[in-house]
Amino acid sequence: MLALRLALVGWQTTGEPLPPGDGGFLWALFQTLVMLGIVCAVAYVTLRVLLPKLGGLGWHRTGGLIHIVDALPLDPRRTLYVIEIKGKYLLVGASEAGLQVMETLDAAVVEQALAAARESTPQPVSEVFARRFLRK
Question: Rounded to whole angstroms, how far apart are CA atoms 116 and 112?
Fold first, then answer.
């Protein structure tokens, strides 16, 4: 049946198997790894270079009135957000039931906590690697 369909579209079927490839398994493995590297490189360039230039995924807006300062997922359906609106900080809970303002936070305390968090943020691995191994 398959031979009839192939013959209808102009394919010639032969009874002999295809000849073995030139490189065999190692050549196929090499080609697969090269293609995997190309796919990873395209994904990296897309996520790190092109997407930020195009405005990202829409999560990180600049210049608006509302900023999500921090988020803490409690489980897959519940999250706590600290949101800044015109200098006021709100603790908002999000769940499948909707959003609920839980508390208005003191701006001075939140900004102090943000400053402390920025100071204690670990350095990127690239900077640590460069300092450790690329000393001049």
Answer: 6
Question: Looking at the predicted structure, is the pLDDT value of residue 89 above 90?
Answer: yes
Tokens of 94: 């999000």
Task: For residue 18, give Cα distances in angstroms to 21, 36, 46.
Answer: 9, 26, 39
52 alpha carbon, distance to own chain's centre: 12
Per-residue model confidence (pLDDT) at position 66: 85
Nearest to 107 by CA among 87, 92, 93: 87
Q: How far apart are CA 104 and CA 82, in angstroms?
A: 9
pLDDT attached to residue 37: 96
Cα–Cα distance for residue pair 23/29, rounded to 1 Å: 10
d(CA 96, CA 2): 52
Q: Is the pLDDT of residue 135 over 60?
A: no
The one-letter amino acid code at 30 reads: F
* Tokens 């460069």, residue located: 130
Strands 88-95 and 78-85: antiparallel
Cβ-based neighbour number of residue 89 at 10 Å: 21
Are 83 and 90 in contact, with CB atoms under 8 Å apart?
Answer: yes
